[in-house]
Amino acid sequence: MPLWTIYHPPGAYTPQQKKQFSADITGFYTRYGNLPAFYVVTVFQEIDADSFLIGGEPTATSVRIKADHIAVHTKDPGIRVRTRQILTRILAPHTTERGLYCEFHIDETPRDLWMLDGIAPPPPESEAHQLWVEKNRPIPY
What pLDDT shows up at residue 100? Predict the structure, then answer.
């Protein structure tokens, strides 16, 4: 699962903008990662300027994004560079193109401690994984 936490100033995003932002993030993983859409979780967390400091200074124009990658990991440097490039393009309309400073990072969390509805996810690219993609929900296998 990619779990995205987006820390942002109050009022930075309307409900519709959050939905579109989340859809763009989800599209990245379904398109490039062949992951089921339900794997992608996006949490928007408003942070007041007096609680959001960069370099010790309050900010009301910054977005900080933390993404946990659990479903799939890569060690390939080329794929990591392409991932950063694609995500930068996906994030731009929701951040920098709106005048918001944006920083993001991705953590790769161990997969073996992850469960969905009490089910350990199937191995990537397995028949069970493909069924989860098609049905967009966890199915015992």
Answer: 98
